[in-house]
Design goal:
This protein is mainly α. It has helices at about 10-25, 35-65, 70-90, 100-130, 135-150, 155-165, 170-185, and strands spanning about 185-190, 200. It is globular. The relative contact order is 0.21.
Length: about 210
């Protein structure tokens, strides 16, 4: 029987897209950028990672623990997220003109790249082997709904950081916005619909991140 959940991207595809979005943003960060641009890029990355980590911890990891309790990455993933949060807190306390800011963003991204490599080569393929496409899409729908709850209070700040951080690169701005809009999709009612059973995907105007 057809379900609206089948219209959702799978949770594994959404996680991969979040990873790509963070990397697109990181690739804009160079030491010669203005301090205000560095701070904007860092804030975009940090918020993306915070939202992404929360989504994984609330929606994805609990399911994977039930399916494969012996998978080692699931058990080390949250401690890695907590270390990431520690660096983010320190990064936010550091001025964009402080040389420590460059070192902290590089330290953060080294950890993120390692985490992403483990996840994309181990956990995501494992999830796709253990769950049907319908189940993966159902979880993707759950992740989208929770994402919108997390993004809503931050939407204005996220849009401002994104605009400042990507202001010098038209191509990256387009790619970054495409990533943001994909990740921000939410169910909305079709024009003229009266019930929640006639909802479809539409792009939201706020920008989420995941990471």
């Amino acid at each position: 029987m057809f379900s609206l959940n089948q219209l959702s991207p799978t949770i594994t595809d959404m996680i991969r897209f979040d990873h790509s979005h963070v990397m697109v943003t990181f690739h804009q960060y160079t030491k010669d950028k203005a301090p205000s641009v560095k701070k904007a890029l860092a804030e975009t990355i940090c918020t993306a990672l915070e939202i992404h980590a929360t989504l994984e911890e609330e929606v994805f990891y609990p399911v994977m623990r039930q399916l494969d309790k012996g998978e080692p990455f699931v058990h080390k993933a949250e401690p890695e997220h907590n270390e990431m949060r520690r660096i983010i807190a320190e990064l936010r306390r550091t001025s964009g003109s402080d040389p420590r800011h460059d070192r902290l963003i590089m330290e953060l991204m080294r950890d993120v790249i390692h985490h992403v490599a483990d996840e994309e080569t181990t956990l995501l393929p494992q999830a796709e082997s253990l769950m049907s496409k319908a189940r993966l899409s159902e979880l993707g729908s759950q992740m989208t709904k929770r994402r919108m709850e997390l993004v809503a209070p931050k939407a204005g700040k996220l849009a401002k950081s994104h605009a400042v951080g990507f202001s010098g690169s038209t191509t990256a701005m387009v790619v970054g916005l495409a990533s943001a809009l994909f990740a921000a999709r939410a169910f909305v009612k079709k024009p003229g619909s009266t019930t929640g059973n006639t909802r479809t995907w539409a792009n939201a105007n706020s920008m989420p991140h995941g990471g």
